[in-house]
Amino acid sequence: MTSEAARRPLFKAVPDALAGLGASTLAFFAMFGGMAQLTGASIKALFSRPFNLRELAKQTYQVGVQSMSIGFLTALFTGAVMALQFGWSLARFGASNYVGSVISQGFVMELGPVLTALLVGGRVGAGITAEIGSMVVTEQVDAIRAMGANPVKELVVPRVLACVLTMPMLALMADVIGITGGGLVATVEQGLSPAYYFDQVLRSTTVSEVLHGLVKATFFGYLYGMIGCYQGLRTRGGTEGVGLSTTKTVVLLSISILISDFILGKMLLPFT
After folding, report:
1. Of the ranges 10-14, 27-31, 129-133, 259-263, which one carries the lowest mean pLDDT score?
2. Mean pLDDT across 84-107
3. HSE (CB half, 13 Å, CA atoms) of 263?
4. Angstrom distance (rounded) from CA 240 to CA 260
5. Every domain of the chain and the residues it spans
6. What's the mean pLDDT when you consider all of the chain?
7. Is 158 left (phi over 0), alpha (psi -120 to 50) or beta?
8. Of the residues 4, 25, 183, 190, which has the maximum number of CB atoms within 10 A of its CB?
9. What sign does the dihedral 71-42-128-159 (CA atoms) show?
10. HEC profile for the chain?
11. Are the beta carbons of 217 and 211 closer than 8 angstroms?
């Protein structure tokens, strides 16, 4: 009798866990479908006139220029740490001269676009969600519709397009700064000459590898811009709902970037 009573909570917990897993899976696919619909509406609105270039310039400044400091500081010290760690590891095998090749390929193909997207995307995506979510809960989006304007064209298109345009440039500049930071440490710690270090960088990095990283960065820009807009438009429940949507945006875009990095890497490697 006692053993049967002890099993009952377990029997109840298993269906509850499966129900929770099923609900989470359905919510994920619902979000995926909603983002696909919003993407289609955004593409349609993009080619309809008039196009607000002033709003695009404003969003480009906010999501691109104002994100440079966080992206570049991260790249600089990541490159420095890579040079320190790889230089020490490679020295045990007498291969410390190749630290420039390791850092350049690691940054150009992976660390440049991924780290920049995670940090900049977290800042930008959360900001977009908070901004649009606040407009939703204060009924400003309904006012845009009442005036006969398209909220997708006015709010979503400039922000997503600004993310898509600025992310590859941020990633490319992060590559340069990260490799330079690695060069500073390699020069001081491993005793490599700057000329030899950068010669290794140029010899080991190809145009296809740079394009590999830029394609990833472009998709990451679309991803965090679209997730931010989608979660902002779905915000409900006043200021508390804005906070919940912002938190959800950061979590979703971080997971999405890491998953899509693997998928895109698998797809792009044969062309690299």
Report:
1. 10-14
2. 81
3. 8
4. 30
5. 52-271
6. 86
7. alpha
8. 183
9. positive
10. CHHHHHHHHHHHHHHHHHHHHHHHHHHHHHHHHHHHHHHHHHHHHHCCCCCCHHHHHHHHHHHCHHHHHHHHHHHHHHHHHHHHHHHHHHHCCCCHHHHHHHHHHHHHHHHHHHHHHHHHHHHHHHHHHHHHHHHHHCCHHHHHHHCCCCHHHHHHHHHHHHHHHHHHHHHHHHHHHHHHHHHHHHHHHCCCCHHHHHHHHHHHCCHHHHHHHHHHHHHHHHHHHHHHHHHHHCCCCHHHHHHHHHHHHHHHHHHHHHHHHHHHHHHHHHHC
11. no
pLDDT score of 237? 82
Give the C-alpha separation, 96 to 88, whole Å.
Answer: 7
